[in-house]
Specification:
about 45% helix, 9 helices, three-stranded antiparallel beta sheet, about 10% strand
Length: about 280
Amino acid sequence: MSMNSNRRATVAGGETSKVTSTNTHLGALAGELDTFEFESKKLLAVFQAIAGNLSCVDCARRSPTWASVTLGCMLCLDCSGKHRALGVGCSFVRSVNMDAWTDEQISMMKAGGNLKLSTFMEDHGVSMLHAPVVKYRSPAAELYRRRLKASARGEVPPERLTDSEVQQIVTDNTAHDNRTKPRSKPKWTPDVSSACCEECFAKFTVVRRRHHCRKCGRLLCGKCAPKDNTKPILETGITTSVRHCLKCYVSPKFRDHRANTTVGSMSAPQASQVRSQSASH
């Protein structure tokens, strides 16, 4: 046999070994996926056997495959998204079919159940007809989460929250509502109503032009409301970056500028006089 023939045989043998190794790896991976799918189906059957778990706890849609571990309840896909928006402290969401589960998480689901959660909430004066953000941020829901976690760990569940804990929950909810509550857009100062900047009182000219701060609505010069001093205003639904004055927002680029900003060429009384003259015209 020639040297070339030996070389070809060696290469062919190496390629065959690679193919065999790849097939073995793929076969093992397929076996793992089959095992995971089998275990997921078993886990889903265990959860669905718990009272009330054949339908979503919030909307009653049948055959839910998502769960809130911290509340020990089953959810449909749509409601699982609403629970994710509450934060993991309120509702830690997992997919029964796609996620891996720890023993403690499984124990919490077994200790809970949709019927158990609904009964507890109703008994504590919280209607299950409320939106998730209302009922699951309530003191009753926090007490249920703590009781569920204690039961799953074999500990004695707390009977009630302290007055200070209830007050803290109310305070946190109020702060959250204030942060997320939509705000009305500011009323803009009309261009014709002011002849000078409402911040530094510098008189507007052909060169020193008028600009509005999108946050407060005041009429300002480019020095007090720089072109690049921008950010979105999510509370009023503005998702693109818009101009702000240096009182409402200071980008890193303009921090030194704000510290060194001096009063403009007009005093406050002079500016007031100019405004009056402008309004009279």
